[in-house]
Amino acid sequence: MYTPKKYQETDWQLISGFVRENSFGMLVSVLDGRPAGTHLPLELQEKMPGEWVLEGHLSAANPQRHTFASGQPFLAVFTAAHSYISSSWYEKEKIPTWNYMAVHIYGQLRIQTESELRASLERLMDTYEAASRCPVHISDVDPIELQKNIKGIVGFELKVEEVQSTFKLSQNRHDADYFSVVTHLKAKGDEHSRRIAEEMENRRPQ
Questions:
Q1: What is the mean pLDDT of residues 196-204?
Q2: Which residues make Cβ contacts (< 8 Å) with residue 195, sequence separation at least 6?
Q3: Chain segment 143-174, per-residue pLDDT in tens
Q4: Which residues, 6 or more positions from 68, have their beta carbon under 8 angstroms from its beta carbon?
Q5: In 105-174, where does DSSP find H-type helix?
Q6: Distance from the CA of 147 to the CA of which of 67, 83, 86, 114 falls in 20 to 30 A?
Q7: Neighbours of 203 (CB within 10 A)
Q8: Quick check: pTM over 0.70?
Q9: What is the predicted pLDDT for the residue at 69?
Q10: Which of 162, 61, 65, 30 is nearest to 107 (CA)?
């Protein structure tokens, strides 16, 4: 991912938090000479101090599974809020742009054993069921139905080997333009604009 230095994010605490908050990502590999991608939840886990992996699974019928034993590097893409930035918000008329946040993670992939997959599914359910009024645990699922579903998916672990992060948030603008962008984003009122404005305020308090 092309990332000018002024837009690079290097704080792993911020990056890992971003990945966890926006964990429905895209897994990309090359299948028969063409890029292949699947949208799926990718959960960041620290296997041991300083060793991070992404856990996920996809349908056994998904052709991308045939790339899992290829030895090729895989790419996981995570994105969040983004917003158009009008040049009319600047003191002097300039070119409009787009503010956004994105993280790319590269690494080798390993297929999980059935027991690893089951443990991964349990963690996934516990994470997302926590907000439910009546949380469902994996032990609540009928064992036969659970086993049938496990047989129909392929679990994997992607080792985090390289991280590229772009948090493009008007860092190149002076204060007057910067806070004008924040004000106009807030006025737009949509969720994406609000989130970008909030992130900009956190990074450069007024």
A1: 95
A2: 80, 81
A3: 999 999 999 999 999 999 999 999 999 999 99
A4: 109, 111, 154, 156
A5: 114-129, 143-151
A6: 67
A7: 13
A8: yes
A9: 92
A10: 162
What are the two backbone dihedrals, phi and then psi, of residue 136, each rounded to the nearest 5 degrees?
A: -105, 130
Contacts of 158 (CB under 8 A, 6+ apart): 27, 42, 53, 54, 55, 56, 74, 76, 105, 107, 108, 109, 110
**How confident is the model at residue 24, as a pLDDT?**
97
Whether 49 is covered by a domain: the verdict is: yes
Token readout for 118 is 């089951």
User: For residue 190, what are its two tokens?
Assistant: 């949509």
Report the CATH number that the domain containing residue 58 is assigned in CATH.
Answer: 2.30.110.10
Confirm whether 98 is domain-assigned.
yes
On the question of pLDDT at 205 being above 90, the answer is no
Domain limits at 128?
Answer: 5-172
Orientation angle between helical segments 191-203 and 175-188, nearest 10 degrees: 150
The beta-strand segments (E) located in 2-152 are 24-31, 34-41, 43-48, 51-59, 74-85, 97-107, 109-111
Task: Tell me how many domains the chain contains.
Answer: 1
> Does residue 86 form part of some domain?
yes
Is it the case that residue 8 has pLDDT exceeding 90?
Answer: yes
52-75 pLDDT, tens digit per residue, is 999 999 999 999 999 999 999 999
